[in-house]
User: Fold Hemoglobin linker chain from Myxicola infundibulum.
Amino acid sequence: MRSLIILVLLAGVAMCDDSLIRKRRHSDSGGYGFSYGGARIDAQEMRIAQLNEVMDGLEAKVGNGYDTVPDSMVRLEKRLGSMEGNDCPESRAFSCGRHSGQCVVSMAVCDGYQDCENNFDEDEKYCENPVPAGRSWSGTAVWDSCLVRSNNQFSLLITGNKRYEHFRTRLWIDAVIIESYTVADEKKDETWSSSGYYDYSRRELVLYPPAGSTGRIGMVCTDSGPSTTTCEFLTESSKTVCGTATLSRGA
Assistant:
């Protein structure tokens, strides 16, 4: 990239030099006593040295500021990668970055061993725990099928999690679901206990259907920003999407 930038700048310099030399040849008889070609080469070498000095300064500034890149920029990069998708085959479904050109197996993500050449699969921010005990989300669930409910206020609370050393790419969690809704003009309140896992490679929270719940419906939530998650409610058997919810993070 550095060489390309310098090459582009030199192309502009060369055009200016050609124009200047043509003007000087036209206005004078040519008796300068030195070589136009030699002067031009000397001038370009000086400009190359100056450009290298400028690039060194820019690289130093970028390098010094790397550790201070805002978390928001890191999250934006990850969201863009998620929205754009990747060309990784199903067997190696995790991309090491939008412009890396490398794919690794999903089960190798955040397992403590570097697989991506750029270490993206073990990035500290990517592999942090996004579902610690005590974290909560709340919002409104909208049902399209499976259940008939209105005004469904929905809250999700993580009560515990566990990560096994031999299987670090997933974080196993326990959660409590609290909801209130209206059915046939009757308001109901329910509390469910559920369990599931967080998949680091897909950045998804998966909760199994609570025991005794109607319709055996689970949920899958995907990161949508620093304080928001988008969830889908799916039947356990057919994986039919019954409804959605956009939840805002509390604690």
User: Anything to note?
Assistant: The longest strand covers residues 167-183.
